[in-house]
Amino acid sequence: MGQFIDIVAADGFTCSAYLAEPVGQPRGSVVVLQEIFGVNSHIRAVADGYAAEGYLAIAPATFQRVKPDVELGYTDADMQAGFALKLAVDALPTPGVLADIQAAIDEAARRGGGKVGIVGYCWGGLLTWRGACELRGLAAAVPYYGGGMTTPEEAARSPKCPVLAHFAEQDNWIPMDTVAAFRAAQPGVEVHSYDAHHGFNCDQRGASHPPSAALARERTLAFFARHLG
């Protein structure tokens, strides 16, 4: 069981973050980026899962600048509320939420004492991709079905660290032709797709697909083991 801590961004903004620590010395650290539903029980469970694998995990509340203490479920009403909060974050002046993610990376490095990776889901997948391209201190990045990251603008970015990307072949939000274009534009990115729907990693969603989630997790853990030491 983890705990919430405060982290401070470069502009002085204080952001809440969920911290899950392993037993013994961390083998590295992982920043976990939420979906549009807040640092809810699912995201906390994901962070706890990485801690169980020996990593120090930090999940920053990426809605904090527009609304604190967001914890949504997965109903249609929750989705509408989450989309509205995402749009509010998107409207923040540059660098916006990336400043809080950088603060989480820095805190993870300070507390863990080793290399730092980042993993994110849905909106968090897009932010993971942007973080890999724009932020400092990352040794590996793993976006899961990052909504928007296969657009030409995003595919034209240059990651600063190794990237492993997971996509869903039945994803209504991310057409597979755009995934193919992303793969062609980013030959250095390891891309995998799964016979599943958007959100397949989340066991609280109707789209949950345990076989795909297990395979993606196995690949992610192997990727982090390779790059985080």
- Structural category is alpha/beta
What is the ordering of alpha helices and beta strands? EEEHEHHEHEHEHEH
What is the overall number of helices?
7
**What is the CATH H-level superfamily?**
Alpha/Beta hydrolase fold, catalytic domain
Total number of beta strands: 8
From the 3D coordinates, which CATH architecture would you assign?
3-Layer(aba) Sandwich
Q: What percent strand?
A: 15-25%
Arithmetic mean of pLDDT: 97
**What name is given to the CATH topology?**
Rossmann fold
Shape: globular
Would you kindly provide a written description of the structure presented here, covering whatever features stand out?
- By secondary structure, the chain is of the alpha/beta class.
- The chain has a single domain, classed as 3-Layer(aba) Sandwich (Rossmann fold), CATH 3.40.50.
- The protein is 38% helix and 19% strand.
- The protein contains 7 helices and 8 strands.
- The chain has helices at 41-52, 76-90, 98-112, 123-134, 152-155, 176-185, 210-228; strands at residues 3-8, 14-20, 29-33, 56-60, 116-121, 140-144, 164-168, 190-194.
- Strands 1-2-4-3-5-6 form a 6-stranded mixed beta sheet, with helices on both faces. A two-stranded parallel ribbon has the order 7-8.
- Strand 3, helix 1 (41-52) and strand 4 (56-60) form a beta-alpha-beta unit.
- It is globular.
- The protein starts with a strand and ends with a helix.
What is the topology?
Blueprint lengths: L2 E6 L5 E7 L8 E5 L7 H12 L3 E5 L15 H15 L7 H15 L3 E6 L1 H12 L5 E5 L7 H4 L8 E5 L7 H10 L4 E5 L15 H19 L1
Parallel strand pairs: 3-4, 3-5, 5-6, 7-8
Antiparallel strand pairs: 1-2, 2-4
